[in-house]
Specification:
The protein has 271 residues and is mainly alpha-helical. The protein has 10 helices and no strands. Helix 3 packs parallel to helix 5. The longest helix has 45 residues. The protein is flat, with a radius of gyration of 48 Å.
Length: 271
């Protein structure tokens, strides 16, 4: 028990700090050496005033892979859960380590890696199965550590025999497995508010698609028939009006005068 506790303390405190420093310093040093080598080659080819562009510096960075980060987290989760009975402060050490790990990973993404290509995923894949398997195995390791290697059982049950310890082990691991199953059933993988937001977003997307399809399928309104609108009359020109007035005046002057009293023609009376 004491040896296991010392091992976990050194692993979660000393090694984690050293690994984080190496994870930041080593890639920085290697990237700087590579940039200096490329700059020297460019200056020998194009002149001493040549400098590397931002695009060339970005191309020199390495591709980001999630495998190493997932592997580190799963290994840490295994050390914390499998042997938490031997070192109860291991979750606190892991929490502090993860808080600093967030910043070092962010620095690594911004400084040492190319911009990652976003890809959609339903879950974390096989890592989820590994985490669930570790959680199940942790039940047996912790119960076994408490029952068979710790002095707590003998203090509670003085003079207990090996058969009694086996019974306690079986009862304890069944209880913890039941609790694990209850947590798996009662706690949703996706919180309710997140699920509601996903459904609302999906509803808005379908509504937008339906509106667009309706606009495309609706018939175009036909223009009104020409017969419904009378043809516009041409405006009268001033010259045409004057001409028509002259014609009317000529007709009046050429026609014989009429006697206003009798209503007969004057030429007819003289005859």
């Amino acid at each position: 028990m004491d040896l296991l506790r010392q091992y976990l303390l050194s692993l979660l405190v000393t090694f984690q700090v050293v690994f984080q420093l190496l994870e930041v310093l080593v890639p920085s040093y290697l990237n700087q050496l590579s940039l200096e080598k490329k700059l020297k080659q460019a200056q020998e080819k194009y002149g001493h005033d040549t400098e590397l562009s931002k695009e060339e510096v970005a191309l020199n960075k390495e591709l980001y892979s999630t495998f190493d980060d997932y592997l580190e987290m799963v290994v840490q989760f295994g050390h914390v859960t499998l042997f938490v009975a031997a070192f109860p402060l291991s979750p606190l050490c892991a929490l502090v380590n993860n808080l600093t790990e967030m910043r070092t990973d962010a620095f690594k993404l911004l400084s040492h890696c190319k911009r990652p290509i976003p890809e959609s995923a339903v879950d974390i894949g096989a890592w989820q199965t590994a985490v669930q398997a570790i959680a199940v195995v942790a039940v047996f390791t912790n119960v076994g550590t408490i029952v068979f290697t710790s002095s707590a059982v003998e203090e509670v049950y003085p003079g207990i025999e090996s058969s009694g310890k086996i019974v306690l082990f079986l009862v304890g691991e069944q209880l913890l497995l039941s609790c694990l199953w209850l947590v798996e059933v009662l706690v949703d993988d996706i919180p309710e508010d997140v699920q509601n937001r996903i459904l609302a977003k999906e509803f808005r997307r379908e509504q937008t698609l339906l509106t667009e399809s309706t606009k495309q399928l609706s018939p175009v309104k036909s223009a009104p028939a020409a017969s419904q609108h009378p043809a516009p009359t041409q405006p009268k020109v001033a010259g045409d009006t004057d001409r028509s007035r002259q014609q009317v005046h000529q007709r009046r002057s050429s026609s014989p005068p009429v006697n206003e009293d009798s209503g007969t023609c004057k030429a007819c009376v003289l005859m």
